Amino acid sequence: MRRAVCPGSFDPVTNGHIDIFERASHMFDELIISVFYNPGKDKAMFTMEERVEMLREATKHIPNVRVTSFSGLLNEFCKQEKAPFIVRGLRAFSDFEYEFQRALLIKSIDNKLETVFIMTNAQYSYVSSSGVRELSCFNGQIKDLVPPCVEKKIKERMANK
Ligand code: ADP
């Protein structure tokens, strides 16, 4: 079985992420989407549980996807799940340097783990979770950037502020 892990913060999941999941789902037998705790990103909008819940709802149309979360090293998670592939999305040059370093670091720990990059869909090349969080703070329009369940959750969150 060709199994791949799609790790990220997904705070929150956007249409750009969904596009990557849909395309990756055709390349692998099983795609494990995992919310990772990122100590460098401590200003989270949603808890890990909320992010998992939104991801499950937003990916229910993709049959070979499993959503989970993990607080630890990506290499450990891949070993635990018997997944030799990591899928990451690539937007602009700014993503490249970070992703390049990250992929090499992962490979230095486990040479058999391959990171596969999927180029963003031009339509979503400007979409980011941080942009969505910023827009949300100022009641900006996010309808075309995130799945409906995420838009609903953000609206509820803002209404209760
Ligand atoms: P991380 O905190 O690990 O960078 P993110 O949730 O920000 O996690 O992103 C997860 C992955 O999705 C990363 O590889 C990122 O480059 C990719 N990604 C984010 N937004 C888009 C987009 N609009 N198009 C394609 N890939 C994207």
How would you characterize this protein structure?
- The chain has 161 residues and is α/β, with parallel strands linked by helices.
- It contains six helices and five strands, in the order E-H-E-H-E-H-E-H-E-H-H.
- The chain has a five-stranded parallel beta sheet with strand order 3-2-1-4-5, sandwiched between helices.
- Helix 4 links the parallel strand 4 and strand 5.
- The chain is globular, with a radius of gyration of 15 Å.
- 29% of the residues are buried.
- The structure holds adenosine-5'-diphosphate (ADP).
- The site of adenosine-5'-diphosphate has 18 residues, from helix 1 and strand 4.
Key attributes of the depicted protein:
161 residues, alpha/beta, five-stranded parallel β-sheet, 42% helix, globular, binds adenosine-5'-diphosphate
Strand content: 15-25%
Question: What does the average pLDDT come to?
Answer: 94
Q: Can you list the ligands bound to this structure?
A: adenosine-5'-diphosphate
- Radius of gyration (CA) equals 15 Å
Terminal Cα span: 46 Å
Number of helices: 6
Given helix and strand content, the structural type is: alpha/beta
How many individual β-strands?
5
